[in-house]
UniProtKB/TrEMBL annotation:
The lineage of its organism: Eukaryota, Fungi, Dikarya, Basidiomycota, Agaricomycotina. Belongs to the chitin synthase family. InterPro entries: Chitin_synth, Chitin_synth_N. This is Chitin synthase. It is found in: Cell membrane; Membrane. Polymerizes chitin, a structural polymer of the cell wall and septum, by transferring the sugar moiety of UDP-GlcNAc to the non-reducing end of the growing chitin polymer.
Amino acid sequence: MTKRVQLTRGNLVLELPVPPNLVLPRMGEPEMMKMRYTAVTCDPDDFAKQGFSLRQVEMRRTTELFIVITMYNEDEILFCRTIYGVMKNIQHLCTRKSSQTWGADAWKKVVVCIVADGRKKIHPRVLDCLTLLGVYQPGPYMKNFIDDKEVTAHLFEYTASFGLDPNLHFKYPDKGIVPTQIIFCMKEKNQRKIIATAERLCTPGCGTRPGNKSIYRLWKTFDLNSNVAGACGEISAYKGKNWSLLLNPLVAAQNFEYKISCILDKPTESLFGYISVLPGAFSAYRYIALQNDEKGVGPLASYFKGEVLHGRDTDISPPICRILCFELVAKAHSNWILKYVKGAVGETDVPDSLPEFIGQRRRWLNGSLFAATYAITHVGQILRSGHSAARKVVLLFETVYNIISIIFAWFSIGNFYLFFYFLAFMIAACFLFSMGNKPQASKFKYLLMTFLLGLAMVYMSYAAIKCSIKAAQQGGSANSVMLFSVIITYGLWATSSVLAFDPWHMLTSFIPYMLLSPTYINILNIYAFSNLDDISWGTKQDSVEIDLGAVINNGQSQVDVEMLSTAADVNEIYQEAIENLKQRKMKKTAANTKRTGGPTLSAAEREQAAKDYYANVLLLWVISNCLLIIAILKGSDPSGTFGDSNSTGRVKAYLVFILVFTTMSNLVPLQRFIGSTFYLLVRLITG
């Protein structure tokens, strides 16, 4: 059925009735009886200027908390895990009747925005879930163009009065669920931009389930500390029912890694006031701190910089979260800090297969390297900030420590070779796998390498125990240093975990982490450096889609739009969504992508320049590690390094130096141990 629709300030805005079969606990309220659709044809920065509006603005509601759930192609289980966790948090806000901010109607101050990176990338069963909640209705009214203006995003607004849990069961107010204001922003292509105007912005990733009080605890940190620009909670690996997923060594290793980071690293960085990365899976920001100055310079400008960069400058693109952290702390004439909130737990889904894990860590490692380089080269911004002299000294000290850590990480593969010089063929094989190959295509090769490296770690552990016993018996300064470095490293992990009353990962995940540590050093680093030119998140989509068609203004601010003719048609879509989730039936997505033309010569030249730049970085990394190995091994006998003799050759001296550095990295300010312990004391006193 074709219907003539009046444009709203030149924009296509439709009020669509929800399916009659949709069970509504609260009847008669317009925001729950109708879903609003808006075809957005502008950049988020120009949303208000172009005459667009949101329901919250029109109803004159104050938005205290804006929760953004970002997703790409996650399935319905991961999506429901996150959205249901968010709903339980909003329920908790409504129970805080003595609060000046929250209370029975707290849900009116919270907006949940679901951002999908690409209309053709979103999982079809996630759309089915949104249909059941009343948030989404597929239909012929969705268009690619409004007149000659390209639609950049499809915006759906609805206030859901019930929830959907990870088991795909409906949850109604009798289970405590309160209304939830939802905005579903389905972008035509990924632009990494969000529309947000709120006092605080919380960004849980799809697949992360926040604890029932976690979002409130993050908000409370901002409420109690006016100079906090950003905060993050504890990221916990999803372990499955009865911790069954820990039987997978890859999941167990990541669980151990996350726990050590949240026990040692994050509390220490929080005391300094600068957390190197607020995890995208669960963090929050103060909106005013994100704003640029009058010249357009500031955190948001740096955050969005990746949209217009080309060639070598695109290395800023992957680590945007890390760049944002530095820009907030180093903001000119401001004294913003970042905080870690231990009680705010977000349980996230971690990769359980090796190819997915390698791909994820490629982004993390490359992002960490470039972000650390960015922070070091822009350290002068800290001096121009509004921090006290004492905090500037602390931040500069942290920068020096980061420089040393980068150098150590840069030569990590060379150091590993020096300890296991007989594994040269494995390292060479890793390079061959990584150059031009995706982990999914070389899955069994990577599994074999991981297994062999794990066996090498078993041998090393046996040798380390045997050498430690022998070193303790023989004595001598070199042997004492080696023994002390081992004890202090593992001792700090165990002691800090006990002090934090969270030691279980030492029992369940320590051994898998140790067995996979060579994989972290070799396979992950080699794959990351061999794929520096892969700067995307796998979500770029440059072509303009025309499959939805267009509507043309008739000159009287009216357009003809195809609509579902009857309520029965709307119900049919609703019933189809239910059947899809029951049967887990996959919908076929369009395979043909229409393009508007080939790449220009200048684009090809920029791409080639970028490849040359990243090839040079890879070459520098390989050559520098080879020179290190040659300098240490030339004229030496590695086989006698740990013999009975107390003499100190070049190889032994260097390896002792590495062990000393490892010890000092834990001891120099007793940084992580003292920092985490002091953090626990402060938290105990202040609550």
